[in-house]
Structures are given as C-alpha cells and as structure tokens.
Write a sequence for this structure.
C-alpha cells in the first residue's frame, strides 16, 4: 500500500519542470569516474505502469540500461535471420558487419532473439565465424556492457524505492574542474545525483539517504554541501526524518538518536547522565573540511566554525549496509 500511494503521488506530479542544478558523479562503462555539476529537468520515466514524472530532488541514483528501440530491433532481426540461415559467407559477413554498426540497444534485440527456443542455432551457422553469438559478444565488448547490465534504466527514489523504465536523454553536459564534458548516455554506467535548493527563508535544503550517506561508508558516505565556512562563521543545522538501519537489526532512527526496535519499543538516544557531545547511532553529524573532526549535530545544532573549509554532513554509524532505507531532510543556514 505504501508503494502504491507513493506511485500515485509521483504520477500526479505534473507540469513543466524548470531545469535544476545538481551535483553528479558518473561511473562510466570504461571504469572512469566524472564528478561535477549539471542541469537536469525532473525525470520523465516511461514504465510498464505508465509514465512517471519524478522530481529530481527525490532521485538518488540511476543505473543506466542498454535500452531497446523498435527500429534498431527490426534491423537487427533482419540481419540475424541471414546469420541463422544457410546463406553464403559473403551474405553472412555483410549482415554481421551491419549488426556491429547498430547502437547499444541492438544488444537487447540479440539477447531476446537468442533466448527464444524457436531460434535454435543451426549446424550451418555453427560452422561459420559470423554467428549471432559472436556478434553479441563483440557488441558487448564495443559498448563495454557486462552480462549483468539491465535493459531498463533503474532509478532509486528517496533512498528506498527502485523503479525500472526508460529515461530518454542523449547526453549529459557535466561541468568539471577541467571544463564542460559532454557524456553520451550509452557510455554511462551509473550516476549519483545530489540536489540542494535555497528555501524561502534562505536555508539550504539537502537530503541524506541511509543507503549511502553513512559515516562508515568509505565511498561517498559524506555529502559535500558546497557551503564553504570561514573560521568564526555562525551556522545552524536542523534535521528531521526517519531511517531504518539494516546494520543495527533494522531499528528505526531519528536525527537526535531516538530509535525504535522492530518490536515497536522506542528509546531516547541518550540519557541525561551521559556525555552528549559524542555522536551516537543515527545522529546527524558534520565536519568542516574533508579531513575535519566529526561533530554531532543531532536534530538541531547552533554553532561557530572553528576552522576554514567545506561543510560535509552524514549519518553516524560505524558499519555501512546498503540495505538501509529512509532519509533525513537537512536545513543549513548561515548567520
């Protein structure tokens, strides 16, 4: 029911969306990474359940699929019929080479063709070097696609819901420290998206996702806010929301450390007799500078920067588990 209500809410989101500036990290199929900023519209995802309009601020990451295209599929099927019949080697060679000229979505057509029992490989084809299997292998090598790559794009929403479908775009223009790079979709394996906005009260609004932004996560556990503090600057951090930490027996946590067990019993994050300055599980934490000291913020923090540097935020937990769910909404304001 929760997922159904979520889908209804997303489907009802309509209108024309202005582009928004986001921080983005791309993992390319060749193993390289690109970090920078880009502008994106809210995502229009075509799914088996209809078209979803998803606000970009709700999207955490995207696994880019190889896609499917009817025009490309029709061409591929024509070439595969030549390869799968007793034709001359010259005909097969031409069909084979034409297959390799098709775009990445041809991989879906070849995979579907080979998975159909009706398209059993003939002995004549086995004797040839120009086979559908070899064409598929070369296409995967050309586009650096693994066997685990999905046909659909998979979008992670609010750190909890995964939805498969087609997000149509040709390329992303990413502004990096080396200039603007234009990256074709077919070269992108995954993308991590981080969006921040200025509220009407002059606060920066960010989202921490429990399946990623954990202090114990050595790869991307800290969210860089793009706020640069100077020593002596006064700032305020407030947070709300709820997360479930699979690493801690699926207990639910709030930014102040309050937690609820799976049996439904709620406990305060700490007692008045304890030292409350050190972070406890579930706390919102921050640091100034990439190598700065980790400091507890909890649900509300008013303080003064003791050093110069970029402000980073995270959720305190020493063990990272990707099965964590939920998120915190964090507001940061400078005085």
């Amino acid at each position: 029911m929760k997922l159904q209500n979520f889908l209804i809410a997303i489907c009802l989101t309509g209108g024309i969306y202005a582009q928004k500036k986001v921080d983005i990290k791309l993992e390319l199929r060749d193993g390289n990474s690109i970090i920078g900023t880009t502008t994106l519209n809210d995502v229009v995802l075509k799914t088996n359940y209809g078209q979803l309009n998803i606000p970009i601020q709700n999207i955490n990451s995207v696994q880019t699929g190889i896609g499917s295209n009817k025009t490309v599929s029709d061409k591929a099927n024509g070439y595969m019929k030549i390869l799968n019949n007793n034709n001359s080697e010259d005909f097969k060679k031409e069909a084979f080479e034409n297959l390799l000229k098709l775009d990445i979505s041809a991989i879906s057509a070849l995979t579907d063709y080979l998975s159909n029992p009706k398209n059993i490989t003939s002995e004549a084809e086995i004797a040839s070097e120009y086979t559908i299997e070899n064409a598929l292998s070369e296409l995967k090598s050309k586009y650096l696609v693994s066997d685990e790559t999905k046909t659909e794009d998979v979008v992670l929403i609010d750190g909890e819901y995964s939805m498969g479908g087609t997000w149509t775009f040709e390329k992303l223009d990413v502004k990096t420290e080396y200039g603007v790079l234009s990256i074709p979709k077919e070269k992108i394996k995954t993308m991590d998206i981080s969006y921040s906005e200025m509220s009407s009260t002059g606060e920066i609004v960010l989202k921490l996702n429990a399946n990623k932004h954990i202090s114990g996560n050595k790869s991307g556990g800290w969210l860089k806010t793009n706020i640069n503090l100077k020593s002596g600057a006064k700032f305020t951090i407030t947070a709300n929301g709820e997360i479930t930490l699979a690493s801690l027996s699926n207990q639910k946590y709030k930014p102040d450390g309050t937690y609820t067990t799976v049996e439904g019993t709620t406990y305060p994050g700490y007692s008045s007799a304890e030292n409350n300055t050190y972070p406890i599980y579930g706390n919102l934490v921050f640091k100034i500078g990439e190598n700065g000291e980790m400091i507890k913020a909890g649900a509300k923090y008013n303080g003064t920067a003791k050093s110069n540097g970029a402000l980073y935020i995270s959720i305190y937990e020493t063990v990272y588990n990707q099965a964590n769910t939920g998120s915190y909404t964090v507001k940061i304001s400078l005085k």
